[in-house]
Structure formats: structure tokens, C-alpha cells
Design goal:
- The structure is a single chain.
- The chain is an alpha/beta fold.
- It has 2 domains: 1-32; 33-359, Rossmann fold.
- It contains 16 helices and 11 strands.
- The strands form 3 sheets. A 7-stranded mixed β-sheet has the order 2-1-3-6-7-10-11, sandwiched between helices. Strands 4-5 form a two-stranded antiparallel ribbon.
- Strand 8 and strand 9 form a beta hairpin.
- The longest helix has 28 residues, at 2-29.
- It is globular.
Length: 370
């Protein structure tokens, strides 16, 4: 009996020692690993959530939260907004989500951690397109991701998330499944893997760090938008219901919702099967939402006089995102006063645009048409 107990004790000690070695090794190599690939459907989510946790743990207040797809992630410069407004802000937008995904991301993950006073959500036809297969796939991936399950799932999955906060080995176990990729010896291969995994470099307040580029029509992007998101376009279903839920639950939490109809170029509408009809139905839906809820809508869709301020048909370049952020900051008191629900963005200049937000304008204004 004593021999059996001694054997069990030695086995337990050996197992514990092995775990300690693995944990120490994981902590040593952690700085060279990507941020937990596989936990979320986009590495950009993990990167931003890492920043958000640090802000929350430090007790730093975020008064204005920007959220949406890549149009918002690359469409508002939160640093420029904060400097111009004096308000703390964070851009939590990431590539790929529609309203079905944006809503749980904001309500279940980000808003409880940052406790903002105002949430600005960027929308366009792609965010509210009910029949887009890519929108549906992203939503399902998000809900079924380990990260989201640890936030809203069972007690066991939430405990898993708590343990990952304590253990580097558990936190990086998904990355460690492919050590040959993580520890590639060839510098070019490591750089290529880093670009594929990280995709975007995230700077202060969630800003995307990118070089300024000339506008390109990006036919491949237009075709992808058509095939994956905007073909068989319809609005008013699941995506709109998600928007309604977002507005309703933010109101219950005493958080103001502001919608920003994102700027696009004329080339964007080539991704639609019937651009005129699709735009009209989208506009009607947004006007109805504003009329029913009193939510403020800023229409920036046609705000820029040319495509010079854009990187491609749906993403603003550095100068464009900074100009729009500064315009929002300059009119922030009017935007959040709740006396006016309709605003429009108007910009002048091409290379270095200067923008203004004007009340009583845009698609939500009385009599606005498609």
C-alpha cells in the first residue's frame, strides 16, 4: 500500500513539474507568438480585445465607442477624434461583420468592459444585407468561437476563459498546435505568416496603422462584395432585427446610439445587382428606424467630393478618416443633444479634405429621397 501511495505521489509530482516547465516555456516564447489565433474568427478581434482589457483593467474611461465592419475600423481615426473633442474614444470595428455580429460584439463583449456614454455604429447596405452568405458565415463563426462562448456560454466555458487569463500555456495552446509554422526559421516565411495572421497593425485607441495609398477601383473587391454579401439583396429581416435589438438594449443601459451611414464611392454600387432599387430600400429602412426610435443618424455616404479621400470603394484613406473624425468632434455637442436626429457630412477639398457635419441634412432628414 505504501509503495502504491509513493508511486502515485511521484507521478503527481512529475506531472506537476511537467506542467510548470510547459507553463514557463510558454511564458518565455509568448512575446513572439501571434495573439491567440483560433479563439476568434478574426485576429483583429483578439488584438483589439487585448487593448480593451488593458483599458478596462486600468480603469480608464472610454466615453465614445466606435463599432462596425472594416468600413468603420478604417473609417474613423479615434486619436484625431479624441484630440479634437477632448473625449476618450476607442474604435472597436473589425473586418467582416454585419449587424448580426456587431450587435453581440458590442452588447456582450465591448460595452460591458468599456462602459461608454455613446456608441457610434457604422452602417451601409452590406451591414444590413439579409441574404449575404458571408454575413451569415461570420455570424455563425462569431457565436461559435471559443472567445464568445467564454463570454456568454456555459459556466465551464467561462471558467476556461478565466483559466486562460492565468495560464499562458492554456492561452496559447491553439497557436502551439502548429509549432512548425510559429517557429519557421526563414525570415521571409515568418514575415508572411505574421502578415497572414495579424493582417492589420493596431495602434492606440484601436486605430489601424496603414500607409496612405492612391485610390484603386479594386474590381476584385467589388466582385467579392457582390458574390458574398450584396447579391440577392434584401433588408428588413435578421440584420435589421439585430439593429433594433442593439438600439433597444443600449437605451436600457442608458447608452446613446448614433448611426453613421458610411461614406462610399460610386464604384461601390457596382457590387449591387440593382443599385437604384437596393439603395432606395436601404434608405427607406434607415429613415423608418430613425422615425421609430429617435436614434441620431449622420449621413456621410456622399460627403466626400471625389474618390481621392478613399483607399478603395469602401474604405477611407488616412486623410479621409481623420477629416471625418474631426468633423464629428467639432459637432459632437449637437450630435448628442437629441434635439436633432438628422445630420449630413459635407467635405471640401480632395487631397486634404475639410469636413463639416450639418444638422437637418442627409437621408434621415424630412423629405430626403433615394
Amino acid at each position: 500500500m505504501k509503495a502504491f501511495l509513493r508511486s502515485g505521489y511521484l507521478t503527481a509530482c512529475s506531472f506537476t513539474a511537467m506542467l510548470l516547465v510547459v507553463e514557463l516555456a510558454s511564458r518565455m516564447i509568448a512575446p513572439s507568438l501571434p495573439i491567440d489565433p483560433g479563439k476568434w474568427p478574426r485576429i483583429e478581434i483578439a488584438q483589439k480585445l487585448d487593448q480593451i482589457r488593458k483599458l478596462a483593467n486600468a480603469g480608464k474611461k472610454v466615453e465614445v465607442l466606435f463599432a462596425g465592419s472594416s468600413m468603420m475600423a478604417g473609417g474613423i481615426d479615434p486619436v484625431a477624434f479624441s484630440e479634437a473633442s477632448g473625449l476618450s474614444s476607442y474604435n472597436a470595428g473589425f473586418a467582416g461583420p454585419s449587424m448580426r455580429t456587431i450587435t453581440p460584439w458590442v452588447l456582450d463583449v465591448v460595452e460591458p468592459m468599456l462602459d461608454p456614454e455613446v456608441v457610434v455604429v457604422g452602417v451601409q447596405t452590406r451591414e444590413l444585407s439579409d441574404n449575404g452568405p458571408k454575413n451569415r458565415v461570420m455570424y455563425e463563426k462569431f457565436l461559435n468561437s471559443p472567445g464568445y462562448k467564454q463570454t456568454k456560454g456555459t459556466v465551464a466555458s467561462q471558467l476556461e476563459g478565466d483559466l486562460e487569463e492565468l495560464s499562458y500555456f492554456l492561452r496559447y495552446r491553439r497557436a502551439l498546435r502548429e509549432p512548425s509554422r510559429l517557429f519557421a526559421t526563414d525570415e521571409a516565411e515568418r514575415r508572411a505568416l505574421a502578415e497572414a495572421d495579424v493582417r492589420k497593425v493596431i495602434g492606440p485607441r484601436g486605430i489601424r496603422i496603414e500607409e496612405s495609398v492612391d485610390y484603386r477601383r479594386a474590381g476584385k473587391l467589388i466582385r467579392a462584395l457582390h458574390d458574398n454579401t450584396l447579391n440577392d439583396f434584401a433588408v428588413g429581416g435578421a440584420e435589421y432585427e439585430a439593429l433594433q435589438r442593439l438600439g433597444r438594449e443600449l437605451e436600457e443601459r442608458d447608452v446613446q446610439l448614433v448611426l453613421l451611414n458610411m461614406p462610399v464611392t460610386n464604384d461601390y454600387w457596382a457590387a449591387h445587382e440593382d443599385a437604384e432599387s437596393n439603395r432606395a430600400s436601404y434608405y427607406a429602412l434607415m429613415r423608418d428606424f430613425v422615425a421609430e426610435t429617435g436614434v441620431t443618424l449622420i449621413d456621410a455616404e456622399k460627403g466626400f467630393p471625389s474618390s481621392v479621400a478613399f483607399r478603395d470603394p469602401v474604405h477611407l484613406d488616412i486623410e479621409g478618416r481623420q477629416a471625418m473624425a474631426e468633423a464629428l468632434a467639432a459637432s459632437w455637442d449637437a450630435i448628442t443633444s437629441e434635439r436633432t436626429t438628422a445630420f449630413g457630412l459635407s467635405c471640401s477639398g480632395a487631397v486634404d479634405p475639410v469636413c463639416r457635419v450639418r444638422s437637418g441634412e442627409g437621408l434621415a432628414a424630412a423629405g430626403a429621397g433615394g
